[in-house]
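If you are new to this repository, start here. Below is one unmodified record pulled from the training split, so you can see the exact layout before writing a loader.
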Amino acid sequence: MGIKSSIKALWTSGKGISLGLPDTVQGANPLDLFQTWFADARKSGLYLPEAMTVATCSPEGKPSARTVLLKSADGSGFVFFTNYGSRKAGELDANPFASLLFHWPILQRQVRIEGSVTRVSRAESETYFHSRPRGSQIGAWASKQSEKLASRAELQGRVDELEATFKDQAIPLPEYWGGYRIQPERMEFWQGRPFRLHDRLIFEKAGDEWKTHRLYP
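And here is the target side for that same chain:
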């Protein structure tokens, strides 16, 4: 974090504690609050405020979690991209529900999201894939994500081969790579407050509307 970012971080530290979370009206859209909080996180100087933990579960009920990057968030859900051969993809395809967690410590805020999961369209994956740096596109082809790797040299060898294969041409989207969309059914906004008397505001989907209530900290 640079000097400018550090100053911004110090300025925002404790901001949420002093303001807290107001009560909200029934039917309010939690995405509006998420977008406000996400904008605050981006302004705060945090590195990768779009980083989120994705928790999945196997059909046998065994959980696993990892950090990925949010690529879009709108009325249709929260989107990230990955290799469809990865462990998380296998669990999502077999058990299409997930939990997301955003943690922005400078603002003492967390957002927890639970919902069903679907793959995004190939066209959407194509658009995002071709917006990535060329090196990242090569990397998507080179990585057999979550499979055993004998050595770093083996991975680098695959990268070198692919760079030669795709030299002076556009890199196509791999068949095994694309996005997932989490459609939220429950969202919790957690705001740190003094003496651990934190604010917890819950939104739960009820048909086409959202119901809201608070929880004890």
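Two things worth knowing about this chain: The mean pLDDT is 91. Residues 59 and 90 are 10 Å apart (CA to CA).
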